[in-house]
Structure formats: structure tokens, C-alpha cells
Specification:
One of its GO terms (molecular function) is serine-type D-Ala-D-Ala carboxypeptidase activity. Pathway: Cell wall biogenesis; peptidoglycan biosynthesis. Residues 519-529 have a biased composition (Low complexity). Residues 219-323 form the Penicillin-binding protein OB-like domain. There is one protein chain. With 716 residues, the protein is α+β, with helices and mostly antiparallel strands. The protein has five domains: 2-67, no CATH class; 79-148, Biosynthetic peptidoglycan transglycosylase-like (Penicillin binding protein transpeptidase fold, Orthogonal Bundle), CATH 1.10.3810; 161-219 and 325-360 and 469-551 and 584-647, 3-Layer(aba) Sandwich (Beta-lactamase); 220-319, OB fold (Dihydrolipoamide Acetyltransferase, E2P), CATH 2.40.50; 658-710, no CATH class. Helices cover 31% and strands 16% of the residues. It contains 20 helices and 24 strands. The strands form eight sheets. Strands 2, 3, 4, 5, 8 and 9 form a six-stranded antiparallel beta sheet that branches. Helix 1 runs antiparallel to helix 3, helix 5 crosses helix 6 and helix 12 (367-375) crosses helix 14 (425-435). It is globular and about 105 Å long. Residues 514-543 and 694-716 have low confidence and may be disordered.
Length: 716
């Protein structure tokens, strides 16, 4: 109490309290109840709160509050957190020497940090032990045992129950957007849409897929090299390294014929066997590697700082942090809830969220939007489109544009269905040209994409728009849910510290009954209160509202036919790898941009819509033989295979108004009995093609458009 009164008198006399003048009780008041604002009024409040605390609590209770809140370096607040960070154990399990080390931190967490300044921290620790001996808290034998103990501290990442740092940052940003600075002080509870099992599946799928890609391009060598150092120096150096994406840092201490010895962050040495490093051909470029190594010394040297990964059998394997990056987004297509999201290989390496911030060209994974618009404008899945070379002249730039297919081959007139699963660029361009660029941009923007992000020219057909993986996943959800636009969101509910609901998400959701499928009923539906990217007043969430109905933007039959066509991409097209999942309810599309700078796969069933992107942060080629089908698709398969394990097949039922007809593959028209190669195709009732003998003058086989609008484009 006397200390508090002296502090108050000093504040009134000088306007501030000298350094070190705050009592422990005042620091408790500040840490638990006040902000870091530097003002006279805040200091007065601090003293008044401290007086109340002194009257209400014992000295031991105040000290307990103090040691559980004080900053102790390396993002550790409180002694329990410090024990976890520096020693990887609970405070109740640390040794006397370790406890003394932690006790030395409050005075100067940086100066006496055992990771950054091990020598100073050792002096401080031993001084504390001497004081404990002199004051009778320990006896001489315990003192001597404790001072002999090495520092032994290393950085331990606290592993949360669920590793979702990108999601956590998205939730934090939304919380701050809604509540401002109170988000950090009011103890709000935030409940997200993310499912922990799916998030873990997404983390593992992305990391494994990136490592597979990275290692097939060779080993880039150690992160750094520390030659000639002592083991103590190596131990201190490796203790300051952090795991990245589950890959542990290690220093090579010795190279032998059978492998190498490496020191890990805990200071222990383990064997890295030859079998765990013989994959490491030297990286030369994204298109070439050096010779296979024949012995461990071809791969590592003593002093190399490397990354290792523990295999299932407990042995170590050489690895490296991938140079390429990736993003994965998985949505519930019925309401836009984000079920899992990964924004990169490691949040610790880079907190840049590529799922929401990286704007990249989607390549052929954009084509379904153009095909969908065509199906809503008189085209059918059987419409014959000429897959042939075409040349365009730009009179403003005085340039010639010669688009091509990725194989530089051309198939002539082919049905739209085949063109999609074979990803024929020329067909997409001709469809867009027939639709008209402006009409197509208006149509595609209804999927939730910003019209300004869609190129106002025919290159849009090749996926030259710049979009984020989250935007792609959201727009693709229209196919998965039967034609409704949804908005992605991640925050389900926000509560106050006492459990009062301050915000409840009410996203536009796909109607579940026939009444809401009616356009008139749809028009009367209430708009959503918010989504994860809105800026609504949080007070609005306090009033219960009826569930919002999502807007229908394409015909249910169009969505069904598109799903059927995208299923063929997996059954017989560029997504054939996904057949390994042995499911009949998957639909999707690969995407690869020029020079393989971006690789994509987007796909779904009725439960999950998932998009995967792979590329470099600074765009460069992934390599000559790298495409969406062998870079992004394996990640998608790992995730969807786990997410759908033991789940029954689930696609939306066929809507009314469709008919299946046998089609002549040569004409795109209804087949006569005995027509060779005839196949069944889906049509809207109003778009069923006539047989050839019913073909009216002026109409063109394979399309509902007049012949003069389908005149062959001149070839140059």
C-alpha cells in the first residue's frame, strides 16, 4: 500500500512515474484491465485499480496473476507459456535450473533471452540460484547440481489442437473490422465454419503435394553452412531455427559412408541414413537436374543447415522447404462456409494468404464459365465447334494473335462436351466469339466475379483473368449446388466473454424446398445479414432474421449438364488421375497457364467444392512437364480422398426439363437407327436437336444458332 501511495504522489508531483516505479500490483492492473495508452488518466485508473486489487487479494494471489501475464520473450506471456516455448514442457515439469532461467526473464526479456543471449542468460540464472541459496530456498547440493546444468533452451513451437493459422488471421481481421480495438481486449469468442478434420487433411495434402513437386526437381543444397564451428556453437545456432511446414531444422555434424549424423533443435544427434538422402539429385533449373548422388558426401557436408522429416518408422529423411507455393480452398457449396483453407506451405515462413490474396490466371479452369454461358444461350453439349487454327489481327496494336492448343494439334469439328474434357483452346475462343465478349463478361460476372477483372477481349477464353483461389472456388460452387450464387464466409458466430451472441452469420443459402426454387418466392427472400467479407454493423446480428435464400444465376438444367461435362473431364479427360479415388460423383477441371506458371484443379461433389493452385510467388515456369493434372490435381485428390472417405456418392438429382437423346457424332443431330458411334447426350427440352431429315434451311448442324452466324472464320 505504501508503494502505491508513493507512486501516486510521484505521479501528481511530476506527471509521470519513474522507470521501475510501477509496483507488481500496478502491473497486474495494467496487464489485465487497461490498454498501453500513455496518459495521466490511464495512470490514475491504474493506481485506483491497484488499490482495489490490494484490498481484495492476497500477495500470493497477486503474484500468481503477475507471473501468468508478464511478457517473457519470444511471444511467451506468463511462466507456463515460457516453459512451453523454451523447454517444450509445462512449468510444473521444468528443472530448478530451468525455473531459475525463466525467473530471470522479467527484468529484461531480450537481454536475458536464453536463445538470443545464452551467455547473459546463464549469468542471470546462476545469480538467481545464488540468491535462492543465500535466502535458504535451496541447499548447497541442489545449488551445485543446478549451476552445472547447461542452458538447454531451444525454441519450441506450441502445437495447437488445430493448425489453421491462415484461418485464424482471417477471423482476427474480421473481428477487428467489426469491433475495432475491442477485439484485443474484450475476450470475444469466435466460432468459425472450419472443420478440424478437413483442415488437417488440407494441411497434409498441400504440404505433401508441394514436397512431391519440389523434390522431383532436385535438391537445392543447405539453407546455410556453418563450417568449423564447435558443437556448442552448432547447438546454439540450431536452437534458434524454427520448424517450417512440419520440416525440422538440423545441422550436419558428421558425414559417414552409411549416412550422416545431424543435430536437431533439442541438441541431440541422430543418424540420417543414406536411404533418406539418396533422392537428392542437384537442382540445376526447373527443367534439369544433375547426376544421382552415389554417396552421402555428394549431398551434405559437416556444418550444413538442412531440413529433415521423421518417417513413420522413426528414421529421418532429408527434405527441403519447397520453393513453389500453393493454396487450397474447400467450401460447402450450399452456403459458402469455408470448410478448410490453406494459404501457403508455412504461415511461419510467410503469412501471405495466397488463397485470398494471390491474383493469378486460372487458365483452362476458367473455361466452364464460358461453356455455361453458351448452354444458357442456345448451345448444347452436342454442338459441333470447329477446333481449327484461327488468327486475329489487332489494328490498334498492329499485332497478330495466333492462339493454339497446348498440343499444337487440331481435331476439326467436335462436340462441346469433348472439347471441354480435352481442353481445346480453339473451341473456347470460337464459343466466346459467337457469344460476344460483352455478353459473356456480363454472364460470367453473375457468378460473383468482378467484371473489371475479366479481360474485354477473346483472350478471356484462355483464362487470362486474374482471380484468387477463393474467388474461383466460390464461382465454381454454382455448378456444385445447382445454379445458385453463394458468398464465402469463415466466421460462424461471435460471443462476448459471458456467452452473449454478438454476431451470427446468415449467409445466402441454397433453398431446400420447391417453394423457394420459384423465382417469385426468390425475389421476396431477405438478403443475407453478412458474410465473412462484409462490413455490417455487429449490432445487426443481435436481431434474429429468417435464413437468407441464395440467388439463382443459372438454370438448374445448365448446372446439371455442366456437372455431367465436368465429370467427363475426370472420366476421360485431363483429370483422369482422379479415377484412382474410385468415386462416381466427382467433377472438375484442370488449368495450366502459359509456360506452366500456374497449375490449377477445381472440382466438387454435392458436399465439397475444392480449388487448388500451385505456382511461384514471383511467376516463373513450374517446369516443362508440369501441368494442373500432375501438380495441383494430386493435392486435390489427397484432400478430397480423405474428406470423402467412407461417404456415399452424392451428386444433385436430375432436374425436370431434361431429355437424353442418341446423337450422331458426325452431325451433332439426333441419330437415326443404326448410326455408327451414336451416343446419348443431355438436352434441355427446348434445345433438343432435330434429326438430319428435319433440319430446316438456314440452320447449322450442332447448334441452335443460324448458319450465317456460324460462318467459318478465315484462316491465315
Amino acid at each position: 500500500m505504501k508503494s502505491l501511495m508513493r507512486a501516486a504522489a510521484q505521479l501528481l508531483k511530476t506527471g509521470h512515474i519513474q522507470t521501475g516505479g510501477s509496483t507488481i500490483t500496478m502491473q497486474v492492473a495494467k496487464n489485465y484491465f487497461l490498454t498501453n495508452e500513455r496518459s495521466f488518466s490511464r495512470k490514475i485508473n491504474e493506481i485506483l485499480l491497484a488499490l482495489q486489487i490490494e484490498r481484495s487479494l492476497t500477495k500470493d494471489e497477486i503474484l500468481e496473476l503477475y507471473v501468468n501475464k508478464i511478457y517473457l520473450g519470444n511471444r511467451a506471456y506468463g511462466v507456463e507459456a515460457a516453459a512451453q516455448v523454451y523447454y517444450g514442457k509445462s512449468i510444473k515439469d521444468v528443472s530448478l535450473a530451468q525455473m531459475a532461467m525463466i525467473a530471470g526473464l522479467p527484468k529484461a526479456p531480450s537481454r536475458y533471452n536464453p536463445l538470443a543471449n545464452p551467455a547473459r542468460s546463464l549469468e542471470r540464472r546462476n545469480w538467481i540460484l545464488e540468491r535462492m541459496l543465500k535466502l535458504g530456498f535451496i541447499d548447497q547440493p541442489r545449488f551445485e547440481e543446478a549451476v552445472k546444468e547447461p542452458v538447454g533452451a531451444s525454441y519450441h513451437v506450441q502445437t495447437p489442437e488445430l493448425a489453421a493459422p491462415y484461418i485464424a488471421e482471417m477471423a482476427r481481421a474480421e473481428l477487428v473490422g467489426r469491433f475495432g480495438g475491442d477485439a484485443y481486449t474484450e475476450g470475444y469468442r469466435v466460432y468459425t465454419t472450419v472443420r478440424s478434420d478437413l483442415q488437417n487433411d488440407a494441411n497434409a495434402a498441400l504440404r505433401e503435394g508441394l514436397q512431391d513437386y519440389d523434390q522431383r526437381h532436385g535438391y537445392r543444397g543447405p539453407e546455410t553452412r556453418l563450417p568449423g564451428k564447435t558443437r556448442d556453437a552448432w547447438r546454439q545456432a540450431i536452437a534458434q531455427q524454427r520448424p517450417l511446414g512440419g520440416l525440422e531444422p538440423a545441422i550436419v555434424t558428421q558425414v559417414e559412408k552409411s549416412g550422416a549424423m545431424v543435430m536437431t533443435r533439442d541438441g541431440k544427434e541422430e543418424a540420417l541414413p543414406w536411404d533418406g538422402m539418396k533422392w537428392a539429385r542437384p537442382y540445376l533449373s526447373n527443367n534439369s537436374m544433375g547426376r544421382m548422388p552415389s554417396q552421402p558426401s555428394d549431398v551434405v557436408q559437416a556444418g550444413d543447415v538442412i531440413r529433415v522429416q521423421r518417417k513413420d518408422d522413426g528414421s529421418l529423411r532429408l527434405t527441403q522447404v519447397p520453393a513453389a507455393q500453393s493454396a487450397l480452398v474447400s467450401l460447402n457449396p450450399q452456403n459458402g462456409a469455408i470448410m478448410a483453407l490453406v494459404g501457403g506451405f508455412s504461415f511461419e515462413q510467410s503469412n501471405y494468404n495466397r488463397a485470398t490474396q494471390a491474383r493469378r490466371q486460372p487458365g483452362s479452369s476458367f473455361k466452364p464459365f464460358i461453356y455455361s454461358c453458351a448452354l444458357d444461350n442456345g448451345f448444347t453439349a452436342a454442338s459441333l465447334i470447329n477446333d481449327a487454327p484461327v488468327v486475329f489481327y489487332d489494328e490498334y496494336l498492329d499485332k497478330v494473335w495466333r492462339p493454339k492448343n497446348d498440343t499444337n494439334t487440331f481435331l476439326g469439328p467436335i462436340p462441346m462436351r469433348e472439347a471441354l474434357y480435352k481442353s481445346r483452346n480453339m473451341v473456347s475462343i470460337r464459343i466466346l466469339q459467337a457469344l460476344g465478349v460483352d455478353r459473356a463478361r456480363n454472364c460470367i460476372s453473375r457468378f460473383g466475379l468482378n467484371k473489371d477483372d475479366l479481360p474485354p477481349n477473346l483472350s478471356m477464353a484462355l483464362g487470362t483473368a486474374t482471380l484468387t483461389p477463393l474467388e474461383i472456388a466460390s464461382a465454381w460452387s454454382v455448378f456444385a449446388n445447382g445454379g445458385f450464387k453463394i458468398s464465402p464466409f469463415v466466421v460462424e458466430r461471435i460471443e462476448s466473454r459471458d456467452g452473449q451472441t454478438l454476431y451470427q452469420a446468415n449467409p445466402p443459402s441454397v433453398p431446400q424446398d420447391e417453394e423457394k426454387l420459384d423465382p417469385a418466392a426468390q425475389a421476396q427472400a431477405q438478403p443475407a445479414a453478412t458474410d465473412a467479407f462484409g462490413n455490417d454493423d455487429p449490432a445487426q446480428a443481435k436481431t434474429a432474421i429468417e435464413p437468407a435464400a441464395a440467388e439463382r444465376i443459372i438454370d438448374a438444367r445448365t448446372a446439371y449438364i455442366m456437372t455431367s461435362m465436368l465429370q467427363d473431364v475426370i472420366k476421360r479427360g485431363t483429370g483422369r488421375r482422379a479415377l484412382a479415388l474410385k468415386r462416381d460423383d466427382l467433377a472438375g477441371k484442370t488449368g495450366t497457364t502459359n509456360e506452366s506458371k500456374d497449375a490449377w484443379f477445381s472440382g466438387f461433389n454435392a458436399d465439397y467444392m475444392t480449388t487448388v493452385w500451385v505456382g511461384f510467388d514471383q511467376p516463373e515456369s513450374l517446369g516443362r512437364a508440369e501441368y494442373g493434372g500432375n501438380v495441383a490435381l494430386p493435392i486435390w485428390m489427397r484432400y478430397m480422398g480423405a474428406a470423402l472417405k467412407d461417404k456415399p456418392s452424392h451428386l444433385l438429382p436430375e432436374p425436370p426439363g431434361l431429355v437424353s437423346l442418341r446423337i450422331d457424332p458426325v452431325t451433332g443431330r439426333a441419330a437415326a437407327p443404326g448410326t455408327p458411334g451414336a451416343y446419348f447426350e443431355l438436352f434441355k427440352n427446348e434445345d433438343t436437336p432435330p434429326s438430319m431429315n428435319e433440319l430446316a434451311p438456314g440452320s447449322s448442324p450442332g447448334s441452335g444458332m443460324p448458319a450465317d452466324e456460324e460462318a467459318p472464320i478465315d484462316l491465315f
